[in-house]
């Protein structure tokens, strides 16, 4: 794992506060690392925190990949219940229904069978908004295409709840 690197600093009430952290998280195959950039330009959450950035990046990359799989009909959206708000989950299901039959994210092999190429996160940008809310932009790659997912996470007790998950 690449160490965290503070890219800029500001001055807070109790001393220096970092505005951005550049770090990474392991992808779990081939020693690849997912670049992560954390930005808290408005001092919404105090000093930028590499551990928080990696945690949010990991969660948002997971949700973005699962949303892509839901959209292409390869993952049951019900399994995301409890991780997304009910409204967010219903919007994801609607998006998947709109894409039904489109061939989105699928490859038809010469024998007529359908395959689902892997979706791989490429990078994550984490933005602290304030009040325990963070917005992430996750870039995904599937075959030769690039997609982006906007993910908003809200702190809920000891965990996180996804309040927005939008693919584009």
UniProtKB/TrEMBL annotation:
<protein>
    <submittedName>
        <fullName>Uncharacterized protein</fullName>
    </submittedName>
</protein>
